[in-house]
């Protein structure tokens, strides 16, 4: 039984409805309130610059932070950065110094910690920043010189992160750190397999757990006082070097962990098989496009793993060979539906989860999503992107239960990636992508 539901503050974070990516450790991406996009008019404030915008989080009322890195795949060294922004104008109110990242180029993460600080992981560095001027309080080089993705706070306030490794690159290292000093807590834990997707967490009657998607199995760690222990829950979600790719992050809901496979598309493999990750002497250009054909024949799959028994259910909502994604699914327990998509071939689907089998409830074949969405369970609204044939990245609002298109909004962005949508103040949503950050407001 999960102790923390959507209304309960997590003790590791600053008391905020969205202090961390996906809104919380279970990664349910659920916002409170309603957009009511179909009955409103959308307005967009956007900023175009040279940055890779990854996510927006909230600390106190009116305190919004955007974090990211630089898309420096060649040329001058990359670095991480965090900004405190005005959500109405996107004016930068404070900016961190250039944050070292070990010369790795990949999307990191930020969070608002219970100790008042803003934490940032980027490349193989972790930073604790002052929440006002974003000056560096503590800087820590992580034990493994690879890109790290995902940063969560546990119930005792400790921080946990991981490096990113693909199939054949050895076991991923999980690192736990003190939130004040950023000193290591215990020895880093090397997993039995590599892991591409971000970690998820769950606080239950039986203790606290961390879920790690491997290259063949889904793993679970038990959190003890100073230790992380691998337990015996390890369902096999794919066969090695088979017809499907690796899983991104889990979405934990009820007694299930939801993932989509087919995530290590060609551009992801390129970034994480070069050293430093994502760096070349010459610009890679269109070779890094996620629109390239997938390096496998299997269709995109949605997979449910029971977190008690390890039993698996799966469905290929579209059935199109060579499926691929760059973001994980979202399950909405209030409506017994999970949202899945195929970024490479196109297609968005709602999968009904209340019966003995997973069933496709609706599809939108002409839509090409790629981002981490936001859902509004109260008003049954899904907010996600659609990279159009015209080369624009729109935000669409869809009825969760029927698949009806409720609204479409142009962001002004020409680049789509797998970054995070976040709920903003009132009836608004933050959009983060490479070279563009925007806030969309319905009124």
Helical residue percent band:
under 10%
Supply Rg. 20 Å
Q: What is the average per-residue confidence, as pLDDT, rounded to a whole number?
A: 95
Number of contiguous helices: 1
CATH architecture: 7 Propeller
| The CATH H-level homologous superfamily | YVTN repeat-like/Quinoprotein amine dehydrogenase
Instruction: Report the β-strand fraction as a percent range.
Output: 35-45%
Domain count: the total is: 1
Widest β-sheet, arrangement of strands: 4-3-2-1-30-29
Q: Look at the helices and sheets and give the structural class.
A: mainly beta
N-to-C CA distance: 39 Å
Kindly provide the name of the CATH class. Mainly Beta
Biggest β-sheet description: 6 strands, antiparallel
Q: What is the CATH topology descriptor?
A: Methylamine Dehydrogenase, Chain H
Count all strands and give the number: 30
Coarse shape: globular
Could you list the spans in which at least 5 consecutive residues all have pLDDT below 50?
none
Quick tags:
globular; 6-stranded antiparallel sheet; 30 strands; single chain; 39% strand; 443 residues; Methylamine Dehydrogenase, Chain H; mainly beta
Quick description:
By secondary structure, the protein is an all-beta fold. It contains one helix and 30 strands. The protein has one domain: Methylamine Dehydrogenase, Chain H (7 Propeller).
Structural commentary:
- By secondary structure, this protein is mainly beta.
- It has a single domain (25-442), classed as Methylamine Dehydrogenase, Chain H.
- It is 2% helix and 39% strand.
- The strands form seven sheets. It has a six-stranded antiparallel β-sheet, with no helix packed on it. Strands 5-6-7-8 form a four-stranded antiparallel β-sheet, with no helix packed on it. It has a four-stranded antiparallel β-sheet with strand order 9-10-11-12, with no helix packed on it.
- The model has no long low-confidence stretch (mean pLDDT 95).
């Amino acid at each position: 039984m999960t102790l923390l539901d959507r209304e309960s503050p997590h003790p590791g974070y600053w008391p905020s409805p969205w202090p961390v990516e996906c809104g919380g450790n279970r990664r349910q991406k659920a916002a409170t309130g309603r957009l009511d996009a179909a009955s409103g008019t959308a307005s967009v404030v956007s900023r175009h610059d040279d940055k890779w915008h990854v996510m927006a989080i909230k600390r106190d009322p009116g305190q919004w932070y955007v974090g990211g890195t630089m898309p420096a795949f060649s040329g001058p060294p990359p670095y991480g950065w965090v900004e405190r922004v005005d959500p109405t104008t996107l004016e930068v109110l404070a900016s961190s110094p250039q944050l070292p990242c070990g010369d790795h180029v990949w999307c990191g993460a930020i969070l608002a910690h219970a100790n008042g600080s803003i934490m940032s992981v980027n490349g193989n560095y972790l930073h604790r920043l002052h929440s006002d001027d974003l000056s560096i309080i503590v800087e820590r080089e992580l034990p493994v010189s690879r890109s790290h993705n995902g940063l969560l706070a546990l119930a005792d306030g400790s921080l946990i992160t991981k490096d990113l490794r693909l199939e054949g690159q050895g076991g991923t290292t999980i690192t736990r750190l003190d939130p004040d000093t950023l000193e290591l807590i215990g020895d880093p834990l090397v997993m039995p397999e590599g892991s591409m997707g971000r970690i998820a967490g769950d606080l239950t009657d039986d203790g606290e757990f961390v879920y790690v998607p491997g290259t063949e199995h889904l793993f679970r760690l038990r959190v003890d006082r100073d230790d992380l222990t691998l337990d015996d829950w390890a369902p096999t979600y794919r066969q090695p070097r088979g017809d499907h790719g690796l899983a991104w992050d889990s979405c934990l809901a009820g007694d299930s962990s939801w993932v989509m496979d087919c995530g290590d598309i060609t551009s992801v493999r390129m970034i994480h098989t070069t050293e430093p990750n994502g760096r070349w002497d010459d610009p890679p250009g269109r070779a890094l496009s996620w629109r390239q054909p997938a390096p496998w024949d299997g269709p995109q799959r949605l997979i449910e793993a029971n977190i008690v028994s390890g039993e698996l259910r799966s469905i290929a909502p579209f059935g199109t060979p060579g499926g691929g994604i760059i973001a994980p699914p979202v399950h909405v327990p209030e409506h017994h539906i999970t949202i899945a998509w195929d970024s490479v071939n196109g297609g968005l689907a709602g999968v009904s989860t209340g019966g003995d089998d997973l069933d496709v409830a609706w599809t939108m074949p002409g839509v090409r999503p790629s981002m981490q969405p936001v859902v509004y369970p109260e008003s049954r609204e899904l907010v996600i992107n659609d990279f159009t044939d015209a080369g624009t990245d729109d935000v669409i609002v869809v009825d969760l239960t029927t698949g009806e298109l409720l609204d479409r909004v142009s962001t002004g962005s020409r680049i789509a990636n797998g970054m995070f949508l976040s709920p903003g103040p009132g009836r608004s949503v933050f959009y983060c992508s490479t070279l563009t950050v925007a806030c969309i407001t319905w009124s």
